[in-house]
Design brief:
Length: 147
């Protein structure tokens, strides 16, 4: 039990370290529409649910952490540890009045973890961003008389 607890702590620390470093890397959205409202809405599904066309509620697999259907966790074996982490990359190209801007953008899509505590009890936790925004308001001007 002590070895399992140590592995869980290490897994949690690794998840935290990876997710914060991925989020801190760059501005994750480059759409001019992200400054109005919520920005670009996330898919709010795991990769397994997306692969089934978004039918995450019907997915009940012992090797998948499915936050859309917590009842599906009953299919997970008591000795199984599941960690699911997804990142995405996409390109953005904007052009207006002869000015262009192109970037490659990366983002953390989600991170989930599922582990057993006892024979009849398991714990699941995760993060799944609602949306991504990428705006920055501000203006910098040199004041007259300063260098």
């Amino acid at each position: 039990m002590k070895k399992l607890l140590i592995q869980l702590v290490h897994g949690g620390l690794l998840t935290l370290a990876v997710s914060t470093s991925v989020l801190a890397q760059s501005n994750n959205e480059r759409s001019p529409y992200s400054r109005y409202g919520y920005g670009r809405l996330g898919a709010r599904q795991t990769a397994a649910a997306r692969a089934m066309g978004g039918l995450g509620i019907s997915l009940r697999d012992g090797l998948v952490a499915n936050p859309a259907n917590p009842a599906s966790y009953t299919a997970v074996d008591s000795m199984t540890f599941i960690m699911d982490l997804a990142v995405s990359l996409r390109g953005a190209y904007l052009k207006e009045n002869g000015k262009t801007d192109s970037r490659v953008l990366g983002n953390l899509d989600y991170a989930t973890i599922l582990f057993p505590v006892s024979r009849h009890l398991a714990v699941s936790a995760g993060i799944m961003p609602f949306s991504t925004v990428g705006y920055q308001f501000g203006n910098t001007q040199q004041l007259e008389g300063t260098e």
